[in-house]
Amino acid sequence: MRPFHLASLLVALPLAACTDKAGDTGGFIDPGLVDEDGDGLDLNTESELGTDPTLADTDGDGWSDGEEVDLGTDPLNRFSWDYGSGRWPDFSAEAEAAGVAGTAWDTDEVFPDFTATDQFEQEIHLYQFYGYVILIDFSAGWCGPCRDVAEGAEEWWEEYREDGFLIIHAIIDNNFGTGNVSETFIQGWAEQYDLEFPVVMAGNDTEPNDAYLELYNSGVNEGYIPFMILLDQDMTLVRAYSGSGLESSISRKVENLLGL
Ligand SMILES: [Ca+2]
Ligand SMILES: [Ca+2]
Ligand SMILES: [Ca+2]
């Protein structure tokens, strides 16, 4: 019995000392468990993930590293963020720093910024998606070929989204010729085609509609829809497309711009 008691005492002593010390100093904390940047991830976890322990949002997409881990998105990929929540990334400060400010609606020109209301009743503006290859698809409710494109659009986006591709649907019209589109209509459009990228109103008196008309008048739009424009990472209008069934052709250009 005696040796057993001695061994117990030897083990217990350092533990007791440790506990006492913790009590005196306000708590002994394993340095690996510290969450310096307050993103919900401790140093050990950040080290495993490869995230920056001093930066809550390592990839700068607006979702903290901890949120991205919870949501299953990649905290190291700025193009990987939670969608379907009505919260989009915002890289407009980078656009401003780069001096991006378009004024002309034409091919090979920097496309002007615009604001629009999306299916989540949020105002978005084009330049917040600076750094993406963006396809703006001007469509209308009465247009059958537009609906054909909308049918496969989510899947199309998914194919390239984490490489930096974004689709925006700008609905110019829901009744033939009226130029009117409602919040209810774009919400229905997004729901019907299960679209989680921005779907925005571009009816009368909206900036996207002005952009559409400018493109129409400049001759970039050949006069029929779906009418799509492809912008590169610097917001330059690379190419315009009219009609449906052009996905594989556009994809080749997208891949080219994304360096895939
Ligand atoms: Ca942290
Ligand atoms: Ca992030
Ligand atoms: Ca991310």
How would you describe what is shown here?
Residues 1-23 have low confidence and may be disordered. This protein has helices at residues 2-25, 43-49, 65-71, 92-97, 144-160, 183-192, 207-218, 247-258; strands at residues 115-117, 123-125, 133-140, 165-173, 199-201, 227-231, 237-242. 37% of the residues lie in helices and 14% in strands. The longest helix has 24 residues, at 2-25. The chain is α/β, with parallel strands linked by helices and 260 residues long. It folds into two domains: 2-71, no CATH class; 92-258, Glutaredoxin, CATH 3.40.30. Strand 6 and strand 7 form a beta hairpin. The chain contains eight helices and seven strands. A five-stranded mixed beta sheet has the order 5-4-3-6-7, sandwiched between helices. Bound molecules: calcium ion (3 copies). One calcium ion is lined by residues 35-37, 39, 41, 46, 53. One calcium ion binds next to loops.
Q: Which secondary structure elements does this structure contain, and how are they paired or packed?
A:
Layout: H1 2-25, H2 43-49, H3 65-71, H4 92-97, E1 115-117, E2 123-125, E3 133-140, H5 144-160, E4 165-173, H6 183-192, E5 199-201, H7 207-218, E6 227-231, E7 237-242, H8 247-258
Parallel strand pairs: 3-4, 4-5
Antiparallel strand pairs: 1-2, 3-6, 6-7
